[in-house]
């Protein structure tokens, strides 16, 4: 079932549920539980020297930025900050931008030429997540989530609203100021992504004061125009842009419903529900979509007979951009915490939310779109994965 819905309808339907982002080789739609069981794949007998990453991989580990070479073996620590790095991003030009000690810092891809672009006041640590989101000092002065523009000339970040630092001018401009005193205060938690054409920015957002960690949403800002609030729940949510930014795909693995996979028009935030939906029988969950160069939508998908029950795992599939034409790409399934697609669409890096017989929780695996064994990477507890450039 596929429908077009407005953001307010999404808010109404999902908000009532109090939530936050498997197949056969034909288009016949049935649950993976009904298919013939197949053995789980392992990495046994896979020579490491035959595997190579599509590019260097940058990641956070123990509060610093590291690099894994394409050989998937050699690692290098790039930064040595006194305060832990909270988040970072890597530009198309190979420049790092990161937050440490409440400061926005840039360097080259080797950690050299370090420059502090913006320094905020020292903030006391607040371990409780909701307390931090409701703390006035944190709301107004904390710097968070740097995100490079597609051309590598600007950095979007959060500081009392959405700001954009322009490398050419050396100045930061407030794009959308937030307020805790308005009638229905909407605050930004972080920057998720620029659109490929640089016209839109995806953000994490919540209504102040926040009382439950699930009351957080993904919102869409058209620069110089309007802010579309609450287009998708943050919890379990993930997204993908088409290369021309004409479409935004939103997925959710926390709740199985018609809205678990949607295709949206950024200019209007009007969304078409393209998830498979068999009410009272199977509920489909989706995660980490990607629009491949050949136009297919690649995504992880799983089914459950209860909309709030997590599937046993998610499988890698492909569908058309209208949600039809499901094709199973791999037989193995995983519970996934995060995912990063290779730009060419030939595979995805996943971080396991739950361990398997072969891999512990927190493992980082490379899944090819070909049905070959998964490849574990030597990255225990790595987060914030980013592809680099050679």
UniProtKB/TrEMBL annotation:
Gene3D superfamilies from the entry?
TolB, C-terminal domain
- Tell me which UniProt keywords the record has, alphabetically: Signal
The record's listing under InterPro entries reads: 6-blade_b-propeller_TolB-like, WD40
Please report a single Pfam family linked to this protein: PD40
Q: Which domain of life is it from?
A: Bacteria
UniProt cross-references to SUPFAM superfamilies, sorted A to Z: DPP6 N-terminal domain-like (SSF82171)
Segment forming the signal sequence: 1-23
Q: Which PANTHER family match?
A: PROTEIN TOLB, PROTEIN TOLB HOMOLOG
Protein family (similarity comment): Belongs to the TolB family.
Per its record, how is this protein called by name?
Uncharacterized protein
Q: Which organism is it from?
A: Candidatus Brevifilum fermentans
């Amino acid at each position: 079932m596929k429908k077009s819905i407005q953001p307010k309808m999404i808010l109404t339907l999902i908000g009532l549920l109090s939530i936050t982002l498997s197949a056969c080789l034909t288009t016949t739609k049935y649950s993976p539980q009904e298919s013939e069981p197949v053995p789980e794949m392992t990495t046994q007998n896979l020579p490491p020297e035959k595997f190579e990453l599509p590019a260097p991989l940058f990641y956070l580990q123990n509060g610093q930025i590291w690099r894994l070479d394409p050989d998937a073996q050699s690692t290098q620590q790039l930064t040595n900050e006194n305060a832990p790095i909270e988040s970072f991003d890597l530009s198309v030009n190979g420049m790092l931008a990161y937050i440490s000690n409440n400061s926005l810092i840039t360097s080259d891809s080797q950690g050299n030429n370090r420059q502090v672009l913006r320094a905020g006041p020292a903030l006391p640590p607040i371990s409780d997540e909701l307390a931090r989101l409701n703390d006035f000092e944190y709301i107004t002065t904390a710097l968070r989530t740097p995100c490079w523009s597609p051309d590598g000339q600007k950095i979007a970040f959060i500081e009392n609203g959405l700001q954009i630092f322009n490398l050419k001018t050396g100045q930061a401009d407030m794009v959308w100021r937030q307020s805790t005193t308005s009638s229905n205060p909407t605050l930004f938690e972080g920057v998720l992504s620029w659109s490929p054409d640089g016209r839109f920015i995806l953000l994490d957002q919540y209504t102040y004061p926040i009382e439950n960690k699930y009351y957080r949403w993904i919102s869409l800002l058209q620069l110089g125009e309007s802010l579309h609030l609450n287009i998708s729940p943050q919890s379990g949510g993930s997204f993908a842009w088409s290369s021309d930014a004409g479409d935004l795909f939103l997925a959710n693995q926390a709740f199985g419903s018609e809205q678990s996979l949607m295709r949206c028009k950024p200019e209007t935030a009007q969304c078409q529900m393209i998830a498979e939906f068999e009410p009272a029988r199977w509920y489909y969950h989706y995660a980490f979509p990607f629009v491949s160069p050949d136009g297919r939508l690649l995504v992880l998908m799983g089914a459950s007979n209860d909309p709030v029950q997590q599937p046993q795992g998610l499988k890698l599939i492909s569908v058309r951009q209208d949600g039809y034409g499901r094709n199973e790409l791999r037989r193995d399934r995983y519970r996934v915490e995060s995912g990063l697609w290779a730009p060419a669409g030939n595979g995805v890096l996943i971080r396991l939310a739950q361990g398997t017989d072969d891999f512990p929780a927190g493992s980082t695996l490379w899944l090819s779109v070909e049905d070959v064994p998964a490849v574990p990477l030597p990255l225990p507890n790595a987060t914030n994965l980013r592809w680099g450039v050679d």
